[in-house]
Design goal:
CATH class of the largest domain: Alpha Beta
CATH superfamily of the largest domain: P-loop containing nucleotide triphosphate hydrolases
Strand order of the largest sheet: 6-7-8-3-9-10
Organism: Rhodonellum psychrophilum GCM71 = DSM 17998
Pfam families: ABC_tran
Bound molecules: adenosine-5'-triphosphate
Protein name: ABC transporter domain-containing protein
Keywords: ATP-binding, Nucleotide-binding, Transport
InterPro entries: AAA+_ATPase, ABC_transporter-like_ATP-bd, Metal_Ion_Import_ABC, P-loop_NTPase
Number of strands: 16
């Protein structure tokens, strides 16, 4: 489904055909790619490995011209911008590690000004202000004079974002900025990007495989899937109308709209499990993971406080003191009944 352009739209892709040319032969990677990228929003681009996400980023950065379709940036065709002009408008953070460990944080962030100063140019007062603003808005002032080689992966990622911000383009593109980071840092980086999008009115486009964190932070999803047009929408709408399942083209997995998680789609019925909602959810998860269906028991009653789990089976009624023991018990009943 294509989006409609609004006054926030900065970049429009129309019927793009993406791929690579080798001599006269074009190898098409993805097609029917249409979108509107909006300022003031965090947009997450999701899709399986190899579907063409990085290829789309390369097209937007002007590094790999689409085989077909049009890209329009701020009302003008992308191909009409010189690489120098484009570098001032679109800042990029790629996944590659920096090999300039000897530079300090402030020196690296200052490199973001190169499109404005040139390689040999010295920083003007405006450039210095932009660098300090970028450092401040990524909350890395405490790292100002540290060497890059002394930073953790999470700190380094914030420095790379600061460098892109110093570039002061209207669009910021990041390819998997949370790869290699722990859960807390993944959240922090995505929340930081969202606040930058809103506070600085930037259009931020992030490629990520982190579905759950993307749901919590993104304003827009773009979903790429082999053989389908690009699907764009607000994550919550895509969840409720089921289009989120485009990300899971196998009937073995399904997106559970209540928990917001991907889970195995086996058709076991667990209607005989009763108790508090959180207990029911986690007992079902454990049973599903262990391939235990309701044929193994008559009912399970879950504790409301610190009582024990009550299992009613063909062997009678018994009290059990945890989900681990319950699973073991049901597994042994299952193997017993199959012999
Ligand atoms: N320079 C290139 N020349 C030819 N084919 C390429 C080139 N780069 C990528 N491809 C091919 O294009 C297809 C899409 O690759 P791309 O890197 O865009 O996927 P992706 O969705 O970003 O994957 P991932 O999630 O694994 O990063 C793949 O089949 C890949 O082999």
């Amino acid at each position: 489904m294509s989006q409609t352009a609004t006054d926030k739209t900065i970049l429009v892709g129309k019927n793009l055909i993406l791929g690579y040319r080798k001599g006269k032969v074009s190898n098409v990677v993805a097609q029917e790619i249409s979108f509107c990228l909006e300022k003031g929003k965090l947009t997450c681009l999701l899709g399986p490995n190899g579907v063409g996400k990085s290829t789309l980023l390369k097209a937007i950065m002007g590094h790999n011209k689409p085989i077909g379709g049009t890209l329009v940036f701020a009302g003008k065709k992308l191909e009409e911008y010189s690489p120098k002009m484009l570098a001032k408008k679109i800042a990029v953070v790629l996944t590659d590690k920096v090999s300039t460990g000897n530079l300090t944080v402030a020196q690296l962030v200052a490199l973001g000004r190169i499109p404005h100063t040139g390689w040999m140019g010295s920083l003007s007062e405006t450039d210095r202000i932009k660098v300090e603003q970028a450092i401040e808005s990524t909350h890395i002032g405490y790292l100002h004079d540290r060497r890059l080689s002394e930073l953790s992966d999470g700190q380094l990622q914030k420095v790379m974002i600061a460098r892109a911000l110093a570039q002061d383009g209207e669009v910021l593109i990041l390819d998997e900025p949370t790869a290699h980071l722990d859960l807390i840092n993944r959240f922090e980086i995505m929340q930081l990007l969202r606040s930058i999008a809103i506070d600085q009115n930037k259009a931020i486009l992030v490629v990520t495989h982190d579905l759950e964190i993307a749901i919590e932070t993104a304003d827009q999803f773009w979903i790429m899937q082999c053989g389908f047009p690009l699907t764009a929408g607000v994550p919550e709408d895509l969840i409720l109308d089921g289009r989120i399942n485009l990300l899971l083209p196998t009937d073995k997995l399904i997106f559970d709209s209540l928990s917001g998680k991907v889970q195995a789609s086996n058709s076991f019925k667990y209607s005989t499990i009763t108790g508090p909602e959180d207990w029911v959810k986690w007992v079902k998860t454990a049973l599903r993971k262990n391939d235990i269906d309701s044929g193994n028991y008559i009912s399970i009653e879950l504790p409301s406080a610190i009582e024990k789990i009550k299992l009613i089976s063909k062997n009678g009624e018994e009290c059990i003191d945890g989900i681990g023991t319950l699973v073991e018990k049901l597994k042994s009943m299952k193997s017993g009944s199959s012999h």
